[in-house]
Design a protein that fits this description.
transmembrane helix; cell membrane; mainly alpha; ABC transporter permease; 315 residues; 12 helices; two-stranded antiparallel ribbon; membrane; ABC_transp_permease
Length: 315
């Protein structure tokens, strides 16, 4: 492990120790549970967005994809709007809807050669429009026992949402380390031209990466519906920036080719521990956004400094 890879875990330990000294409440088991519960949805989103970042692209479709999945699942499981009660099948369909929107981002990217942030922003708008149509002015509250149990019931002291997030992180790590899709994601971000010249068709793998990311976002939309007990159009608002922040802080480069799911998971814990610690010691919420932005700038600068020195260029 390089010093750059070790930096985020060390920073996480320093933050935890510092806030534990400054606030006795921070080091309680109950507060640890709060941090992990708050990190669950963001960790799943970060898993998806990490694969996109590894290819050197940016994904801003999170709010729209999560909104569509949230409204889809809330209308397919037992709810107060209709007589449907598909249970687990409804959850699967909602995740599939997220994967479909993610794949649409990938298809638009490779077909029209439009920058990824523009295509994904457009797909986010499509997703928000679909969610608004499904919402239809009446909030669908869920009563499905399986889905509500994800947020309410606990195993070994932690909610089911936390264990789902852990499973997603392990799955994401396995995919990036032991599958062709994961290896090519790194290669696309590091040297796409070289990969193309070697005879690999890059376009299908880009679409697959965005589709995989969309599936993670769809699951996150289902998870947040479990937390809220209802499907909301604003379910994923702001989580795109938060996930990119966590990934970058954890060591995943915006330029692609470096980092990974475990890096982003550490970044999620770091940012959530920092946010929780600032609240515990009484820092105003108005300062927390500024602190988060400053951390992103510092993390990006530290990550790209060796590249800038080597290439002597600034993009």
């Amino acid at each position: 492990m390089s010093l750059r890879d070790a930096g985020p875990p060390i920073a996480l330990v320093v933050i935890v120790v510092a806030f534990s000294i400054l606030s006795p409440q921070f080091r309680t088991i109950g507060n640890l549970q709060n941090i992990l519960d708050a990190s669950a949805v963001l960790a799943v989103v970060a898993c998806g967005i990490t694969f996109v970042l590894l290819t050197g692209s940016i994904d801003l479709s999170v709010p729209g994809v999560m909104a569509t999945s949230a409204l889809t699942v809330s209308l397919l499981v037992a709810n107060n709007r209709n007589g449907l009660d598909l249970g687990l099948l409804g959850i699967v369909i909602a995740i599939a809807a997220g994967a479909a929107l993610g794949s649409l981002s990938g298809v638009l990217l490779v077909s029209f050669k439009v920058p990824s942030f523009m295509t994904t922003l457009g797909v986010s708008a499509i997703g928000l429009g679909l969610a608004t149509l499904l919402f239809a002015g009446v909030q669908p509250n869920i009563t499905d026992p399986l889905l509500t149990s994800w947020a309410r019931e606990r195993f070994l002291g932690f909610s089911y949402l936390v264990w789902i997030a852990v499973a997603c992180v392990l799955l994401g790590w396995a995919l990036q380390r032991h599958t062709r899709l994961g290896r090519y994601a790194y290669a696309i971000g590091g040297a796409e031209e070289v990969l193309s010249l070697s005879g690999v068709r890059v376009a299908p793998y880009k679409v697959a990466v965005f589709g995989l990311a969309g599936a993670f976002y769809g699951l996150a939309g289902v998870m947040i519906t479990s937390q809220l007990g209802a499907g909301l159009v604003q379910a994923g608002a702001g989580l795109d920036f938060s996930a990119i922040t966590a990934a970058v802080v954890g060591g995943t480069l915006l330029t692609g080719g470096r980092g990974g799911v475990l890096h982003s998971a550490v970044g999620v814990l770091l940012t959530m521990a920092l946010t929780n610690g600032l609240v515990q010691i009484g820092v105003s919420p108005y300062w927390q956004g500024g602190v988060q932005g400053l951390i992103v700038v510092v993390a990006v600068a530290a990550a790209v400094l060796p590249l800038r020195r080597r290439n002597q260029v600034v993009k």
